[in-house]
Amino acid sequence: MKHVAFYPGTFDPITNGHVDVAQRAARLFDFLIVGIYAGHEGRSKQPLFTAEERRALAEQALRGLSNVRVDVFRGLAVDYARAVGAQAIVRGLRAVSDFEYEFSLAHMNRHLAPDVDVVCLMTSAQYSFISSSMIKEVAQLGGDLTGLVPEHVAEALVRKFRALVGE
After folding, report:
1. Catalytic positions, please?
2. Phi and psi based region of residue 85 (left: phi greater than 0; alpha: psi -120 to 50; beta: remaining)
3. Domain layout of the chain by residue ranges
4. What string of DSSP letters covers the chain?
5. pLDDT per position as a tens digit, 43-92
6. What does the alpha-carbon distance between residue 70 and residue 51 come to, in Å, rounded to a whole number?
């Protein structure tokens, strides 16, 4: 039996912290599906990148992992996990502050899909302060993203913010 895991998120954009978690999850499971969440219902902010742009950025960032596929999904992560035959949902934890939210989410997912486990991986220390929101703010203000996101993501952020201001 193949052990399949599903790593969902908005990945707006994918960061080196996300890549780190995906690489480590890919070593733990036979197959990993990285799921780009396409919905924005109930969220206070619209994504900067479209779902397809986020998929392309993630595919390029993870291209060296032969047992990883990037998909776009809508709806509940547990429903998608079941649909693709995943036995586990992977979540990354950056800091203690993430734990409370992830703990509640894991229990809700367990209620909705008792057959799908949640596996939390601690982000490597050098990425523990990185969030996609922070990355977008730094990029918008012209800050250096070296070591925080893959180079192609940094370039995409520069292009996106230039397009938004009409350069």
Report:
1. 18, 45, 94, 132
2. left
3. 4-164
4. ---EEEEEE--TT--HHHHHHHHHHHHHSSEEEEEEE---TT-SS--SS-HHHHHHHHHHHTTT-TTEEEEEE-S-HHHHHHHTT-SEEEEEE-SHHHHHHHHHHHHHHHHH-TTSEEEEEEPPGGGTT--HHHHHHHHHTT---TTTS-HHHHHHHHHHHHHHTT-
5. 667 899 999 999 999 999 999 999 999 999 999 999 999 999 999 999 99
6. 11
Q: Which CATH class is domain 4-164?
A: alpha beta
Structure tokens at 102: 């992830």
Site of tokens 């990883």: 68
